[in-house]
Write a structure and sequence with these properties.
The complex is a heterodimer of chains A (116) and B (414).
Chain A: H1 2-23, H2 44-47, H3 54-59, H4 86-99
Chain B: H1 5-27, E1 42-52, E2 70-83, E3 86-99, E4 102-107, E5 113-117, E6 122-137, E7 140-150, E8 154-167, E9 172-185, E10 200-216, E11 219-232, E12 240-245, E13 248-253, E14 259-273, E15 278-289, E16 294-306, E17 310-321, E18 331-332, E19 350-365, E20 371-385, E21 403-413
Parallel strand pairs in B: 12-18
Antiparallel strand pairs in B: 1-2, 1-21, 2-3, 3-6, 4-5, 6-7, 7-8, 8-9, 9-10, 10-11, 11-14, 12-13, 14-15, 15-16, 16-17, 17-19, 19-20, 20-21
Classes of the chains: A mainly alpha (116), B mainly beta (414).
Chain lengths: 116, 414
């Protein structure tokens, strides 16, 4: 509902503006930003060392964000570890290994057993 | 001067943001991307009982043994930092096993296989010690480990190395490892059962490579490929194949040949949802080996946190495998006996569903050395049957097992 009201309002404002535009045909607009002092930007090469390759640009895209160390609070959570409880993981892996014909993936080695 | 409420609130928010980013910096050493040595001594203890359901009466001979196996397990682990770039850990396991175990299959009048159990005479203990050391560099980790497991009738020794290499600002991790295991079997009562060998050995050589990627602030994915080569005596000395025919009956030894190549493809995905304080772990594994077994394993774990103290974690796991090429419920004597054959239900075609829940309570004692404690209780139920298999199974093995695992644990960070 809120979104609808907002859309209608935007539409109304836009139509009013365009009407106003029609009535001021031929009028030259003031240069509103003419007197504004722009900050001095550093020279281009001061903060871009070299042009980026397409691969680098793609890697910086949102799809493959590089998560910085200070953004890792969630990734560092205990429950975000692959195996939060190592004893439980070891026990379950051993049980499934003894009762099923499958080998657990993701690690190498580990002792066998004369499991019955 | 009295500050406005809004000002104070803004200040608190800033402080919170700073604290959380400071925590994040500390937490960057978290286990999801273990790239530095642990910074505290941590020890855990767990006690669990594993008990198999009684065999259904329709799958056993009338009056025969129907009780099955049970195991009680105690585990102790200790991990400690040695220097800033070196840590060590060890894990001790002590298990007591008792009960009866599937021996061979017979057939009822209709030809349906029924399970014959060994007498409930198995009494065994297993002691297992594993040690692991990690050396960390700025962009990786190198680990070495070894272990020894001993039972009355089985001993296994293993050594291995594994490592991780981080790149792409630690958003991508390449991992890998190699392992060797040397096992010795000395089956009991081999003087009473002439098909049982007195002493045998087997070896396994394994390796894996994995690639992990941080997708964004809240999710991770990892894919890995594992290969294992087993050689030597790969059969189960306590299982036999029963031959029935017009002229009589005969027993054959369980024989699985001398080599097995195993391949596993595993994909794991973790995602945290901040709005609900929950974390989801999703994993899928496809497995194939040279015995003709192919399997699918899928698991979903849901860690639901209630504040900092309480966590309830339900999980569900589905598993389905095809039978080994040489599996047969029993042999008809008019058939030509195969060179390799087994009646072990674990090499038959079936599916399994397991589900469980774990509750964890975390607290710390500022009045006593500021220790962090984590206590947990869990239960898991495992059901297997031919009906649960992805492909329909015409004659499911009678020995398929259902079991329950109960466990309690305590973990302490100093």
């Amino acid at each position: 509902m809120k979104r609808l009201i907002r859309a209608v309002r935007a539409l109304a404002i836009a139509s009013l503006c365009s009407l106003a535009g029609c009535t001021t045909l031929g009028h030259t607009w003031d240069d509103w930003f003419g007197e504004m002092k722009l900050p001095d930007f550093p020279a281009f090469d001061e903060y871009t060392e070299s042009p980026k390759s397409y691969v680098e640009i793609a890697l910086e895209h949102d799809f493959l964000v590089r998560v910085k160390p200070w953004e890792r609070s969630v990734l560092a959570r205990h429950d975000m570890a692959w195996d939060p409880d190592e004893l439980e993981a070891a026990r379950r892996t051993h049980t499934f290994f003894s009762k099923e014909a499958t080998m657990p993936g993701g690690s190498a080695g580990g002792g066998g057993c004369g499991c019955n | 001067m009295r500050r406005s409420r809004r000002e104070r609130r803004r200040e608190r928010a800033t402080l919170r943001a700073l604290t959380s980013s400071a925590l994040a910096l500390l937490g960057a050493a978290g286990k999801a991307s273990a790239d530095t040595a642990i910074d505290h001594v941590e020890t855990s203890y767990s006690f669990s009982t594993y008990s198999e359901d009684k065999l259904e009466s329709s799958k056993a001979i009338p009056g025969g043994e129907r009780n099955r196996y049970s195991v009680s397990t105690q585990q102790l682990s200790l991990a400690a930092p040695i220097t800033d770039w070196f840590d060590m850990s060890m894990q001790l396991t002590h298990e007591t096993m008792s009960g009866a175990s599937p021996w061979y299959n017979s057939a009822d009048a209709a030809g349906t296989p029924i399970q014959i159990m060994s007498g409930a005479t198995i009494k065994d203990t297993r002691n297992d010690l594993g040690v692991h050391a990690n050396y960390y560099t700025d962009n990786g980790r190198l680990g070495f480990g070894g272990g020894y497991s001993a039972e009355n009738d089985y001993s296994a020794m293993n050594v291995g190395t594994d490592g991780e290499l981080h790149f792409n600002e630690k958003n991508t991790t390449l991992s890998g490892g190699l392992g060797l295991s040397f096992d010795e079997l000395t089956p009991t009562d081999s003087d009473l059962y002439k098909l049982r060998p007195t002493q045998e050995s087997k070896q396994s050589y394994s390796g894996f490579v994995g690639l992990g990627q941080v997708i964004n602030r809240r999710s991770l994915i990892q894919g890995s490929f594992t290969y294992n080569w087993n050689k030597g005596f790969l059969s189960d000395p306590y299982k036999e194949v029963f031959g029935i025919g017009g002229s009589g009956q005969r027993f054959f030894a369980d024989d699985r040949g001398g080599a097995r190549h195993q391949f596993a493809f595993l994909v794991r995905y973790n995602r945290h949802v901040e709005e609900t304080e929950s974390t989801f772990h999703l994993s899928y594994q496809y497995y194939i080996d040279t015995w003709g077994v192919r399997s699918h394993t899928a698991e979903l774990d849901w860690y639901q946190n209630f504040g900092d103290a309480i966590q309830i974690a339900p999980h569900v796991r589905y598993y389905s495998q095809t039978a080994a090429d040489f599996y047969l419920p029993y042999l008809r004597l008019n058939q030509q006996p195969q060179h390799e054959m087994t009646s072990d239900y674990r090499l038959s075609a079936y599916g399994a569903l397991s589900f469980g829940v774990k509750g964890e309570y975390a607290f710390h004692t500022p009045w006593f050395r500021d220790i962090e404690w984590r206590a947990n209780l869990s239960v898991e139920r495992y059901l297997s049957s031919g009906d649960l298999s992805l492909k329909s199974v015409s004659v499911p093995a009678p020995g398929l097992v259902n079991f329950t695992v109960l466990s309690a644990g305590l973990s302490v960070v100093f």
